[in-house]
Amino acid sequence: MFSSPSAAARIALLVALALPACGAPRTPQTDATEQPAAAPEKKASAPPPDPMIEELRSALAARPNDGVLLSTLAEMTAAAGEHEEALGYLERLAAMGWSFAPLDASFGALRDDPAYRDVAARIAKNEPVVRRGKTAFTLEDPMLVPEGIAHDPKTDTFYLGSIRSRRIIAVGKDGAARDFVPEAKDGLLAVLGLKVDAGRRRLWAACYASKQMRGFTPDMKGTAALFQYDLDTGALVGKVVLQRKGEAHLFNDIAITPAGDVFVTDSEAGGVVVLRGGKEPLEEFLPKGTYYYPNGIVASEDGTRLFVAHYRGIAVVDAKSREARPLETPAGIVTAGIDGLAREGGRLFAVQNGLGRARVTRYDLAKSMDRIEREEVLESGNPLFDGLPTTGVVARGAFHVIANSNLRGFDPSGNPAPGAKPERTQVLSIPLGP
Known about the structure:
Radius of gyration: 22 Å
Number of helices: 5
Mean pLDDT: 90
Largest sheet: 5 strands, antiparallel
């Protein structure tokens, strides 16, 4: 899941984009205003420039053809009311053949500008339209807001977690949903990543205290937790809660190695934590601030390395030495903006929802598992994706994706957004490809 960055995460984004740790904002300009004769002249200061935008502008000067920078700046300057500047970035994306169509919802009032409509349409022409997915099942409750999905191959059961109602549901072969963990049972928080450890008969859930979840109270702010359930009985086996004053934590996704080590991305902190052998204590694996918003995570088949998706791309991390390096990526292949990440053999499956309109992409890895050899877009241009796809799981010989989570259909307090009409969530079954 991607969310609005906290102050700490905004600083981490600068690091992720290989920028200086901090920058010197330009001095704001001021305008003189008329005052009564008896009063001294006063000046009204314009709003100070956003340091993050300033740093991104500096980075773009050094890398003028960086599509991720251009796309990020287009959205950020549009939100800041700098519409002409935002349009300029979009024009540059159009000229370079950028294929991630702008997401109208990210451009606020600018989306009604004819100039925006024109350039957005030109970029959209580069977007691949691939619609292979078929509906595997539909969730009847449009208020569920599911983000994570997992599959138990032994029972052929899917598990989905709810951000809003703090529960985990199970969907069997008949497509009917039932509560696996009822609302807020065991202190369950907003559920993000889910992972099945079929051999050990465990279901792991990564959670955090979201303002969008029912029952949120201010004292919960910054809390993250990892829950472990018995797959066969639904009983809670254990949980680890992380809450430290003044710190923000968000447990997002999970990877499990053959040895039973459980790795979890902490998106707000910018690192990865681990339970060795699935048991406490919770250890820091990658320090805070290592990446901007680490999100999807998977382990290699032998458990010797991890693939960690963050805002800028995918990192390959040695599970023992913790040595991290970027996954080698050929020119023209974009691995930024990934939410859900899954693996099947030597292939990675990614849900890219952080760079304009979302898509599902497959990356074929070299035998060395340290570089991408080939990319294939598996699903793109699907109207369901306007409801925000989040994560997926390889099951039944296909990639099953939460196609429309409805995450954008609710305001920060968890109430339906004005004019939003949450639809029933569909899970798509997308062929894996050759």
